[in-house]
Design a protein that fits this description.
heterodimer, A: mainly alpha, Rna Polymerase Sigma Factor, Chain: A, Arc Repressor Mutant, subunit A, B: mainly alpha
């Protein structure tokens, strides 16, 4: 998943505003460009919230279809990027409230770059039971630990610690203050630390 | 500075430089150092999830499906709002929600304000006329002693009429009877 806090913009490609303006007039080609620009990021958010590839794919499609329906109501007070994230967050939380008891977990593929990540290298080198943990097991443990969090706490952990977004951007996306975002991060990490105690230094 | 406050500030300044007083506290408090290390491990473990990728072909498959659904919608428009609940909760329109909540609150207040106040009932005509002096009490009824002592009919006495019982013919005379035939 991409960790860029801001959408990558190529000078040769039209910016979001122009694409949104065309899409709101019914230009599906313009909307298709927006979809291709952001769908992987939205997938990352939804997958880490649900821990299910299948649910994530379905939700990504729903998010973009519903967003298209309400494009005319988008007044451009925030970026399209923030706006689509807010729709994805609300829709995923609604979905999770309905899903509650049915949890079919499935794991994503992992990019081989993880083996060069300093955090993973350090974890593998350390003298602890965690050293023998395979990448697959680690992935499962991280997903299960995430699922123990409430939806709101999980959202901030996914947006900040996984997707690398700054606090103020998360505050805009979730519709709460930066202080609330920090407070949720604080308590979520404490809970995660309890779940992942075997990796503690 | 208290440890709890320092730990909150560690989150606040995690993406920037720590203030001097927080750094000083951290340098001499082993408990906060341990907490900081633990939180850093959690943060770095979670950051490993950024290497996860969707299944191959996801981008194309998803974009094509979305395009097809939008084209279907253009031919046969889906209801704009699938349900009222979805309409109210799925889209980022907090102003709309606050406005709706305000309207509901105003309606509730108006309902209470427009309710008539309870006032004492004022009768248009007198309901009852109160006599100035109480009426004299009636004389107690009297009964001849003979009638009271000798009832004209027999009285049954007993727990039920299925077993042995006594039939009273008067205040003094009783004869046993049996109802089992």
């Amino acid at each position: 998943m991409s960790t860029d806090p801001a959408p990558a913009t190529d000078t040769n490609q039209p910016d979001d505003r122009a694409l949104v303006a065309s899409a709101s007039q019914g230009d599906l080609g313009a909307y298709d460009q927006l979809v291709r620009r952001y769908q992987t990021r939205i997938y990352g958010l939804v997958y880490n919230m649900t821990s299910s590839k299948e649910d994530a794919e379905d939700l990504v499609q729903d998010v973009f279809v519903k967003a298209f329906s309400s494009l005319k109501g988008f007044r451009g007070t925030s970026s399209f990027y923030t706006w689509i994230y807010r729709i994805a967050i609300n829709r995923t939380i609604n979905f999770l409230k309905k899903r509650k008891k049915r949890q079919a977990l499935s794991l994503n593929d992992v990019d081989e770059g993880v083996e060069r990540d300093p955090a993973y290298v350090e974890l593998s080198a350390r003298e602890s039971p965690a050293r023998d943990t395979s990448l697959l097991e680690l992935q499962e443990k991280l997903n299960k630990a995430l699922l123990t969090l409430s939806e709101k706490h999980r959202t901030v952990v996914v947006l900040h610690d996984i997707q690398g977004l700054p606090h103020e951007e998360i505050a805009r996306m979730t519709g709460c203050s930066e202080g609330t975002v920090r407070s949720r991060l604080f308590y979520a990490r404490q809970q995660l630390q309890g779940e992942l105690a075997e990796f503690a230094p | 500075m208290k440890c709890e406050r320092v730990r909150e500030l560690l989150v606040e300044f995690e993406d920037s430089t720590l203030p001097a007083d927080v750094s000083e506290h951290l340098a001499r408090c082993s408990s906060c150092q341990q907490h900081s290390r633990q939180m850093e491990v959690v943060r770095r473990l979670m950051s490993l999830k950024k290497y996860e990728r969707p299944d191959p072909g996801f981008e194309e498959r998803s974009a094509v499906t979305i395009r097809r659904r939008l084209e279907d919608m253009a031919r046969k428009p889906e209801p704009l709002f699938g349900s009222l609940w979805e309409f109210l909760t799925d889209y980022p329109r907090p102003a709309f929600r606050y406005a709706l909540a305000g309207v509901v609150a105003v309606l509730i207040v108006l309902n209470f304000v427009s309710m008539p106040l309870l006032e004492p009932v004022r009768p248009v005509a007198p309901i009852a006329r109160i006599a100035p002096t109480p009426a004299p009490a009636p004389e107690p009824a009297t009964m001849p002693l003979e009638v009271y002592r000798q009832p004209a009919y027999a009285a049954f006495q007993g727990p039920s009429n299925r077993g042995p019982a006594r039939v009273e013919y008067g205040p003094r005379e009783s004869v046993p009877v049996n109802f089992e035939y």
